[in-house]
Amino acid sequence: MKGRILLLSSISMLFAMGAMAQDYAPANWKFSKMEKGSAEGIFIREMASSKWNCSAPFRLGDNLDGSVGLACAVGGDVAGPASDKYEGMTDDDKAVFEEFYKACQIVDGGVLGNIFCYQGNTSTGTDSRAVKNTKSMPNSTLFWLSNTDIPLGNNYRLSVSFRVIADAAEKMKLTLATSSYDGIDQGTGLANDGYREFELPFYTEFNDYWSTAKMDITIKDNTDPNYKELPLVMKMWLGNGIESGIVLFRDFKLEKIDAIDNEYVPGKIVDEDWDDTPTGISYTEKDNQAVVWAKDGQITVVDAASPVSVYSISGQLVAFKAPMSNVTTIPVSEKGVYVVKVGNSCRKVVL
Hints:
By secondary structure, the protein is mainly beta. The protein has helices spanning 2-7, 91-103, 225-229, 283-289, and strands at 37-38, 67-71, 105-108, 114-119, 141-145, 154-166, 170-177, 196-202, 210-219, 233-237, 245-249, 253-257, 268-272, 291-295, 298-302, 308-312, 317-321, 327-331, 337-342, 345-350. The model is unreliable at 1-20 (pLDDT under 50). The chain is globular, with a radius of gyration of 21 Å. The strands form 4 sheets. Strands 1, 3, 4, 6, 9, 11, 12 and 13 form an 8-stranded antiparallel beta sheet that branches. A 5-stranded antiparallel beta sheet has the order 2-5-10-7-8, with no helix packed on it. A 4-stranded antiparallel beta sheet has the order 17-16-19-20. The chain is 9% helix and 33% strand. It comes from Jilunia laotingensis. This is T9SS type A sorting domain-containing protein. Residues 1-21 form the signal peptide.
């Protein structure tokens, strides 16, 4: 960590003083409260876009306590004309987005509680909790949507805690705005006077470090109904770099504060001494104890902690599935001998 402080002049361990009020972050920004397994339920599929940018104004899905949209530039595995509407995508385009959703997991973060985990297509990093995306998501951008009941005309402190197991030095970028894609800091004289941008850097030398991005913002009131539709939208540009990394997120916080602290305008990166080592039985031990059998055209795995891969005897990948519950079933159409890999544990089965 000492070396990192020398590299990042913006990093400080100073925290703004003052009592925090209620945390207005919606439930879908609270990964510690979610069950382990696929995080795909927090995404609004109809908001998916094969254009790099989604079109504002945004809309929160019915009965959702916050949610996430996803956009991705055309390229990589995304083919065909770009569309800013899910209904306009080809089936192949939609399938690419589905692979991203499957790779987004809620995993055991040890003393941190459950955390969000995603591993990109070209990542060479290792984390037994991660489900590697099988498709490329170039320039992928997440749109974290707030709720409609955030009190307007108030100051807030947003905290985003992250760790990246990276193959290359890169950065994510946050852009904060309302559903009309403006409105943050409007008329306050703060940075950008309409929206806020802040970079979240990560480095190959510091794969074990957590960082927290903290920034103070003003969410202004306005008579325009678009401002009240979603008071806060976090556009998180993951960039091409995230495809070569594993990204972990703690709960996002949005706390109402009395006054803006200029230490957090436009934002500050704070290093954190956190350990996200999973609690209880190790993933390796649990994978070794998983029960695997084959019968009636399907392979069944009980108590897998890591993703399950099925290979033909010649080494060809036949199927891949992330464990969503205690029992994982994988249909296999042809009879034969197969190798089932659960994490780093391998079994041979015959159908």
